[in-house]
């Protein structure tokens, strides 16, 4: 024990409680630091993948524009161009709606907090409470 090293005496209950409180404070600080690191890592990964997704989306968007023109002009061979344009527009709106619904559903499933750190912090606090309660 810390007290024994300096005084050569057995620590008192008060000293033990002070040491416990300091240890719990240190442990909670470490949990908070781990929480911050996990959040930072998750944010960095999200930014990396978001930039890749944006680049892919731009290429896909450009391709869809050209595909739309191709379909419009192909359909214009058998119907008025205004009707072929309307059909392609409705098709694009349907694809957009489906894509937004799927994206919304997946985004809602993302975890909002680092569960491991939160669980460990809760366990630490509960154990400290039990230990302090048993001292009384």
Question: What is the overall pLDDT average?
Answer: 84
Number of helices: 4
Q: Which percent band covers the strand fraction?
A: under 5%
Counted beta strands: 0
How many strands, which pairing sense, and closed or not: the largest β-sheet?
none
Would you tell me the structural class of the helices and strands?
Answer: mainly alpha
Query: Taking Cα atoms only, what radius of gyration do you get, to the nearest Å?
Result: 31 Å
Q: Approximately how much helix is present in the residues?
A: over 70%
Terminal CA distance: 21 Å
Which descriptor suits the 3D outline? rod-shaped
Helix and strand element order: HHHH
| Poorly predicted residue ranges | none
- Structural domain count: 1
Q: How would you describe this structure in keywords?
A:
mainly alpha, single chain, 136 residues, 87% helix
Helices and strands, with pairings:
Layout: H1 2-7, H2 13-75, H3 81-108, H4 115-135
Helix pairs in contact: 2-3, 2-4
Short description:
The chain is mainly α.
Describe this structure in words.
With 136 residues, the protein is mostly helical. Helix content is 87%, strand content 0%. The chain has 4 helices and no strands. The chain is rod-shaped. The mean pLDDT is 84.
